[in-house]
Amino acid sequence: MNILLTLAVIGGTGKEGKGLAYRWASAGYRVIIGSRTAEKAESAAADLNEMLGAEAVEGLSNFDAAEKADILVVSVPYSAHKSTLESIREAAQGKIVVDVTVPLVPPKVTKVQMPEAGSAAQEAQSILGENVSVVSAFQNISHEHLFSDRTIDCDVLVTGKGKDARLEVLKLVKAAGMRGWDAGVIENSMVVEGLTSLLIYMNKQYGSKSAGVRITGLKQGKK
Amino acid sequence: MNILLTLAVIGGTGKEGKGLAYRWASAGYRVIIGSRTAEKAESAAADLNEMLGAEAVEGLSNFDAAEKADILVVSVPYSAHKSTLESIREAAQGKIVVDVTVPLVPPKVTKVQMPEAGSAAQEAQSILGENVSVVSAFQNISHEHLFSDRTIDCDVLVTGKGKDARLEVLKLVKAAGMRGWDAGVIENSMVVEGLTSLLIYMNKQYGSKSAGVRITGLKQGKK
User: Fold this and answer.
1) Which residue in the set B198, B202, B216 is minimally distant from A214, CB to CB?
2) For each of chain B's 223 residues, which pLDDT tens digit applies?
3) pTM here?
4) Do residue B188 and residue A207 have CB atoms under 8 angstroms apart?
5) Which of A92, A215, B71, B118 counts the highest number of beta carbons within 10 A?
6) Are A188 and B201 within 8 A, CB to CB?
7) Exposure pattern of A138-152 as b/e (b: 16+ CB <10 Å)?
């Protein structure tokens, strides 16, 4: 693990982003929570530091967080996806941006409805430009599991621009205590984003809150 | 299980279709193999009857097979998808059509590339019309497993038009010895079809031939 990397979780005051920030800070990463206002980010960072018993997390505005970090993680409701990405575009140049966003369209969140670009990740790539490596991951992980120490019975499928960037994000998956798989090019992100709608539907149908997915038939070591 | 149902496997001379036909015939269903020519269908049926040690499978032209059966299963290469559906359209009216087709676009089969309609299943629905219930299933099952008696370590996600039709297809999944899940509306099929490209990619990356997917966190009984 590269312990010198700094991660910014843009939209890190939401449940999913805050949970990921918690796990990475626990694993020794320097983590910055970003939010639209620095005050909200500082408040979320203070919560996490209390949980962690250490001053491990900092809170800044989204732009400042993005500028200061090596890898950016975007975890925002889909309605804020475009505007958030535009607001950090300059700060993101040359970096890896991990897009956690699921393009749910309420009220029909159990029906797959992809944006024009094909997926949220492709939309992000188009907004941020070719000098950024957008990698998509973590869309199928329920935030409810992130603050517990129990094993998360769900794999993380990592898709995105460039194999090196995907491998870097696979390190973050492992650091967060999950099992990840390199699942190919950014066009494959629509499957992983869309799968969230199927999991929400199945949760409702089968009376659960924790549907997840595991890949079978593969061994982690083999590459 | 409704033992009086007759299943037609359109394109049943291919590996996937033939494997499914084998499993259903083993489970006691009346199965008809359909092919572009009756001769090829008869030959595949004869193979299966020899394996089964019984005269359980019949071979007919695609149209005759479709006309004689209660439920149609379409398992053809994507290049033959549209023309095959058009050729059975009249015979399919009022029936359930299970679409197994994966819209792979060679040579880039590890990259998700959905058709204009959104997915192969939606394309099928559009060709067959509103009087047919298109249900999509089995796209992630490797044909190599179908002729063995070993447990298939891969779930079947069932999406499609109408909950009753999906439940009917879930019975076929169970009869074929697999675990199935109702995964919602036909628009969700793109995820399941596309997942096949991710599994092919992961097989290559991780040195396997049998990547599959399992749903976690749900119980079958609860509905």
Assistant:
1) B216
2) 445 699 999 999 999 999 999 999 999 999 999 999 999 999 999 999 999 999 999 999 999 999 999 999 999 999 999 999 999 999 999 999 999 999 999 999 999 999 999 999 999 999 999 999 999 999 999 888 899 888 899 999 999 999 999 999 999 999 999 999 999 999 999 999 999 999 999 999 999 999 999 999 999 875 4
3) 0.96
4) no
5) A92
6) yes
7) bbbbbeebbeeeeeb
